[in-house]
Amino acid sequence: MTSQHDILIVGAGPAGMAAAVQMAELGLAPLVVDEQALPGGQIWRASEAARSDSLRAALGPDYAEGQARIARFRASGVAYLPGTRLWHLEPGFQVFMSKEGAAFSRKYRAVLLATGAQERPVAIPGWTLPGVMTVGAAQILLKTSAQIPDAPVWIAGSGPLPLLYMRQLLALGGRIAGYLDTTPRGQAGRVLPHALAALRGRSDLLKGLKWMRALQAEGFPWLRGVRDLRALGQERVESIAYTTADGVTHQKPASLVLLHEGVVPSIHATLAMNCDHDWSDAQGCFVPRTDEFGMTSVEGLYLAGDGAGIAGALAAEARGRIAALGIAQRLGVGSPDPALRSARRALDQRTAARPVIDALYPPPEAEIPDETVLCRCEELTAGDIRAAAKLHRGGPNQIKAYTRCGMGPCQGRQCGYGVNRILSEEYGQSRGETGFFRIRPPLKPVTLGELAALEEGREAP
Amino acid sequence: MFRQLTDPGVSSFHVYIDGVAAIARPGDTVAAVLLRTAPHIARHTPVKETPRAPFCLMGVCFDCLATVDDETSVQTCLVEARPGMRIERPRGKLRITL
Ligand code: FES
């Protein structure tokens, strides 16, 4: 099958759209594929949709910016396939995708992964109960369906996203039962060393401070230094238990609990391609190693956006442009220096405040209780994993083979970091040394029906 | 669990969850509709038959799997509701393999 596209961009969020626009300006014709029905990524999800004024106002100016970005992307004329899942990538790059129940495969000279991030899984006892979700999930419901909790909601965790979501929710008449802030106390001392570096990016920090003050003025319970969260219930969540900084444990009725402990890069595709990854202590996750253009250790495979390390939407756009220029150069379409200089400047500016944010909201370190379901798919607990680790000393892949942990449909997207952490603790070794599951195709489940289309060599959409 | 801040004037249509009509609107994912329709779950797991509801809404947890128009194990958070869609909540057994 021939294709007029040499370059594939996976993901139509800030990074993917910016890369596409940049490539179009250079006269390149990439193909953009994206899982969602509409462009914008998670941050600008459904930005194009018609909205009431009150919803628009509640979602705020950062979200509103998405509309113009999406319009520019659409106007660029770049080929774009929404509703398309990438499920396998082979060196050289033969790429396998599915759209509307039919699989297809094409070859590309360069691939740019702009697949972004996912929320860090927060394994607490009871997190599999209906009525426990992530803050990001609730925010997506707000953006796509103007949907808010129908009763006062508990929000538990740390980071900028809960603050933003609480603001949006209150502006729309939603109610908050309480914010259980798990940020360890005494973060200010850790943050000071980064303050100087952040001066250039201070608008982000000031914005955060402003949000915090406005929220505190609302008067809902805001408990700091909370730990030992537990969601309790039979068929669904009925109450939440937690320990406050004074050491007292409380239990309160709850119908909806939203969790959030920051976001981590989506690494399944780069893991499957055997790219090099480094452990980041600051962000508590693996980050694929990239060069100054965003190229991974696999020639021709590029990364841009939060998938290359969490830095937010505006940094993602700059990285998208830089990767686009790098790919152009690689394909012999020489990239103009001024564009590169301005993109690098933008990236510097947009990442200046990041060390402060990372230091303010460090990844959680509390031990995962034995009774916690770690693998949501196979329903294995942290205790099961510890027992397996004692019985058969081995890495994540051995544990997977012995227990089936990570073998379910999510492919370790929810349990991978939990297993990594437990094995590190059990064996007294670093998280980086312990590593992650080996990821095998398919990256997303594929049905026989989808594969049939591939066998028949049906025309790609 | 959730309610929709309905804009008067936004059109709506029906989908059928286990045969019962539920209201959906353009832009809704199937998972969004499930989360505002009692008992607010997507399925019971094949392993221990525990109830699960959509959890991440961005395609990474697979707890929103349901049967949509006879297709099994559909990630309902990635599928837009369409008029007349038939959604069935799986009850265990049907094991999902890769
Ligand atoms: S809700 Fe997590 S995959 Fe759909």
Automatic annotation (TrEMBL), chain A:
**Which GO terms of the molecular function aspect are on file?**
oxidoreductase activity
InterPro entries recorded for this chain?
Answer: BFD-like_2Fe2S-bd_dom_sf, FAD/NAD-bd_sf, FAD/NAD-binding_dom, Metab_Enz_Cyan_OpOx_G3PDH, Opine_Oxase_asu/HCN_bsu, SoxA_A3
Q: What's the short name of a Pfam family annotated to this entry? A: Pyr_redox_2
Query: PANTHER family from the entry?
Result: ANAEROBIC GLYCEROL-3-PHOSPHATE DEHYDROGENASE SUBUNIT B (PTHR42949)
Q: Which UniProt key words apply to this protein?
A: Oxidoreductase
Q: What is this protein called?
A: NADPH-dependent 2,4-dienoyl-CoA reductase, sulfur reductase
Gene3D superfamilies with a match to the protein in the record: BFD-like [2Fe-2S]-binding domain (1.10.10.1100), FAD/NAD(P)-binding domain (3.50.50.60)
Domain FAD/NAD(P)-binding, residue spans: 6-318
The SoxA A3 domain is annotated at 378-453
Organism, by scientific name, is Salipiger marinus
TrEMBL record, chain B:
What keywords does the record list, in alphabetical order?
Oxidoreductase
The protein in question is named 2Fe-2S iron-sulfur cluster binding domain-containing protein
Q: Name one GO molecular function term.
A: iron-sulfur cluster binding
> Gene3D superfamilies, per this entry?
2Fe-2S iron-sulphur cluster binding domain, sarcosine oxidase, alpha subunit, N-terminal domain (3.10.20.440)
Pfam families attached here?
Fer2_4
Q: Does the keyword Zinc apply?
A: no
Species the sequence originates in: Salipiger marinus
